[in-house]
């Protein structure tokens, strides 16, 4: 967003209110590629503990039945089947392999490597580990955000535990980033935060008596009646204002007036061990993320669910509605954080139930992105890429081969779509860094003096692009 446009938006009642691209407000030379809301972006949604895929005597419950074009039949009954409505925009990847860095623990190896492509700052530190480099979400924000603003890093669930809670996003070696746990705080920051609203307006927002739209209603109505706006402009503006209102209604239902002045304190809604609260929080974070990329306020978002091993969250059984054993126990198939403890009956099926809930949560993000139109007649989901990825491949082994990555959106046509692929002929060669380079390139990040990003990740790792997924 250029400086004059940001100044105009910030002048609307003092709030940096994100707006969709309006043809009547843009220079005549603007194109779909440069318009607000059509710029490529990346949103990363992280799950811990692997998925219920084929391993030992356990059947396949995650990946589609067939490679190639995605169909309802091939996806039915699998966790990824929850995404079938978006199958034409999906790229479901097998044979994504991580390196076996000496983190001293499989969870640390996956959680800290997945977005950085880096090993540890100190070998064998296990739960005290730190990654030795920048994460791709931060790199995207640093290079592409207006003013070089940080990418958004959002967290759902109990923000402590193995690896210290929020752990996937890094500024540089050993420089772990703090995450925003409360969706309403993330929203206030997006709308301008303490620097964007005057004290009186802040007070009204915090008390939840007025929406951001209400604070600037006169100015927005004046903008909507401008003779320079087309019918499509007015439709986009109405959709955007409706989306903001919907988000605020959801948030206000989470935060009653008695707690409105305690937004900085932790509450069961977003610092909970209950899986329903945790995934509800993740969906609210997704609403904020979709709004952020729609108004071009941020080009990169990472959403982490649960701590390094998600070892305290208890997701609910779909039939009984009761909380199951904590997710880390289920992933071990035992009532234990290790290899001992009583075996949990049908634990691989229970793990699958968790995968399904994550798939439905990811679908919420895709629905949100698809609801935004872009100037070229497509949807926001087509303009960028949303990623659902895992720290590990499967349950008990916490393996680093065949780690599931699900991509949605082509980033403006850069990525293949509608496919279930086994990349690089299914070898076990580490290729995570190639995937990260490809995603960075897709949204516009470049290595110095190069037409692509091709050197991200630890030295000695495979570099360049993962050609299998490029359109």
**Beta fraction of the residues?**
5-15%
Rg over C-alpha atoms, rounded to the nearest angstrom: 22 Å
Number of separate helices: 15
For the termini, the CA-CA separation is: 28 Å
> Structural class per helix/strand content?
alpha/beta
Low-pLDDT ranges: 1-17, 25-37, 252-268
Helix content: 25-40%
Main sheet makeup:
8 strands, mixed
Query: What is the string of SSEs from the N terminus onward?
Result: HEEHEHHEHHHHHHHEHHHEEEH
Q: Strands of the largest sheet, in order across it? A: 2-8-3-7-6-1-5-4
Give the overall pLDDT as a whole number. Answer: 85
| Quaternary structure type | single chain
| General shape | globular
| Topology, number of strands | 8
What features would you describe in this structure?
There is one protein chain. With 471 residues, the protein is of the alpha/beta class. Helices cover 32% and strands 8% of the residues. It has helices spanning 3-10, 72-75, 106-113, 136-144, 183-190, 193-196, 199-206, 212-215, 217-224, 231-254, 275-294, 327-332, 347-370, 380-383, 432-443, and strands at 42-47, 68-69, 90-94, 152-156, 300-305, 385-390, 405-408, 419-422. The protein has an eight-stranded mixed beta sheet with strand order 2-8-3-7-6-1-5-4, sandwiched between helices. Helix 5 packs parallel to helix 11, helix 10 (231-254) runs antiparallel to helix 11 (275-294) and helix 11 (275-294) packs parallel to helix 13 (347-370). The two termini are 28 Å apart. Mean pLDDT is 85; it is low at 1-17, 25-37 and 252-268.
């Amino acid at each position: 967003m250029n400086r004059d446009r940001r100044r105009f938006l910030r002048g609307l009642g003092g709030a940096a209110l994100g707006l969709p691209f309006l043809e009547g407000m843009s220079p005549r030379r603007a194109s779909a590629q440069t318009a607000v809301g059509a710029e490529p972006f990346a949103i990363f949604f992280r799950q811990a503990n692997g998925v219920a895929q084929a391993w030992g005597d356990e059947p396949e419950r995650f990946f589609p039945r067939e490679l190639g074009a995605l169909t309802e039949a091939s996806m039915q009954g699998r966790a990824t089947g929850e995404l079938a409505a978006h199958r034409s925009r999906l790229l479901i990847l097998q044979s994504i392999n991580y390196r076996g860095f000496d983190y001293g623990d499989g969870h640390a190896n996956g959680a800290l490597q997945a977005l950085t492509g880096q090993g540890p700052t100190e070998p064998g530190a296990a739960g005290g580990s730190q990654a030795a480099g920048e994460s791709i979400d931060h790199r995207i924000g640093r290079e592409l955000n207006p003013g070089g603003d940080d990418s958004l890093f959002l967290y759902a669930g109990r923000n402590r535990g193995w690896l210290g809670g929020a752990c996937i996003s890094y500024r540089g070696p050993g420089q772990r980033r703090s995450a925003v746990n409360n969706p309403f705080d993330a929203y206030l920051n997006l709308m301008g935060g303490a620097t964007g609203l005057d004290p009186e307006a802040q007070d009204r927002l915090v008390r939840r008596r007025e929406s951001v739209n209400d604070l600037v209603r006169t100015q927005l109505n004046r903008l909507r009646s401008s003779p320079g706006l087309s019918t499509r402009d007015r439709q986009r503006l109405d959709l955007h204002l409706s989306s903001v209102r919907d988000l605020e209604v959801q948030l206000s239902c989470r935060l009653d007036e008695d707690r409105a002045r305690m937004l900085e304190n932790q509450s069961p809604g977003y610092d909970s061990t209950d899986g329903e609260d945790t995934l509800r929080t993740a969906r609210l974070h997704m609403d904020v993320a979709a709004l952020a990329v729609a108004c071009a306020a941020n080009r990169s978002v990472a959403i982490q669910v649960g701590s390094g091993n998600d070892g305290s969250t208890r997701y609910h059984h779909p039939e009984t509605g009761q909380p199951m054993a904590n997710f880390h126990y289920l992933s071990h198939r035992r009532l234990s954080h290790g290899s001992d403890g009583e075996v949990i009956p049908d634990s691989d099926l229970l793990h699958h139930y968790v995968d399904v809930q994550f798939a439905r949560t990811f679908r919420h993000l895709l629905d949100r992105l698809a609801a935004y139109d872009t100037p070229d007649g497509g949807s926001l989901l087509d303009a960028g890429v949303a990623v659902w990825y895992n720290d590990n491949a499967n349950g008990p082994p916490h393996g680093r081969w065949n780690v599931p990555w699900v991509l949605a959106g082509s980033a403006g046509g850069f990525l293949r779509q509608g496919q279930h692929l086994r990349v690089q002929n299914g070898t076990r060669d580490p290729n995570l860094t190639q995937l990260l380079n490809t995603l960075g390139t897709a949204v516009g990040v470049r290595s110095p003096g190069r037409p692509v990003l091709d050197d991200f990740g630890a030295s000695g790792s495979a570099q360049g692009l993962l050609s299998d997924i490029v359109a």
